[in-house]
Amino acid sequence: MRIVLCNSPEEAVSFTVNRIARLVARKPEAVLGLATGGTMEPVYTGLVAAHREGLSFAKATSFNLDEYVGLTPNHPQSYRYYMEQHLFGQVDMDPSRIFVPRGDLDPLEAAEAYESEIRSRGPMDLQLLGLGHNGHIGFNEPGSSLASRTRDKALTMSTREANARYFGPDETQPISALTMGIATIMDAKEILILAVGAAKAAAVRAVAEGPVTTMCPGSALQFHQNVTMVVDEDAGAGLVLKSYYREAETMHVDRD
Ligand code: F6R
Hints:
Blueprint: E1 2-5, H1 9-26, E2 31-34, H2 41-52, E3 61-64, E4 66-68, H3 79-86, E5 98-99, H4 107-121, E6 126-129, E7 151-154, H5 157-163, E8 176-179, H6 182-186, E9 191-195, H7 201-209, E10 227-231, H8 242-251
Helix pairs in contact: 1-2
Bound molecules: fructose -6-phosphate.
Fructose -6-phosphate binds at residues 35-39, 65-66, 130-132, 136-139.
């Protein structure tokens, strides 16, 4: 796993944005795996800025990681809505090549349909990931099978608490989500995982340096051949091999 330690959250975001923008510039028909959440908001702001400067997403395809079960695509708290606000509505993506799991349909059928769409259009050239405090990737919570595929996954209390801020006092917060599985994520050709802030430090260390275990679903990424984890100083604070990662970066030849 390549670990990129950045001096600030802004630097980590800009590394991530550049990586995605360079891929799309080099391969306009790229298949992108996308994430939502607070960490990704500035990433999408950066991609929208790149689009305004000439980057086209017109030939790209995207698959989002997850969607709340029970929410319609136009529900303000749905991830489809989030994506429309932060990216899809502001760039030139072709709506027929945008895929987000359907939380408002029968979960079993929607999960199967999503996997089959990924099979026919994938694999992902680049899968973007955030990281949960508990080590989740997508909504693969601790205990998830490392061989899992898209399915309806119950959210842990810690995830529900972390996301409660997005729901009003009168809104019912979903208790489960349709999420790509860990095996679905691992099929991507390249994985880029971004984590910023001290609250992610323990999870970052467990993903990069802990044992591979279902208790930290992100640790499965250790079995992938092309993963880059981008962190700011706070999120990387617990990494044991910090100085080695920094030194390795000075020798790193960027393949893009
Ligand atoms: C969202 C997703 C989640 C988030 C994670 C971090 O599509 O898959 O794994 O990336 O919960 O969320 P934030 O960035 O809000 O801390």
